[in-house]
Target: IS110 family transposase
Amino acid sequence: MPEIVTPPTLTRFIGCDVGKATIVVFDSRDGRVRTIANTPEALAAFAASLDAACLV
Model:
């Protein structure tokens, strides 16, 4: 019988509403909504701020 593997529990969810100039981001950990620029630099900084236990 195959082993049943349970995925890790996710403790942080990130919701993104992507627009041409900006991205509105919701973080379930603190309930904050913020807006970041839709540029490679801003997206790289945003991605670097995330941890492995979140789902985007």
About this structure: The chain has a mean pLDDT of 88. The radius of gyration is 15 Å. The CA atoms of residues 28 and 46 lie 15 Å apart. The beta strands are 12-18, 22-27, 32-37, 54-55.
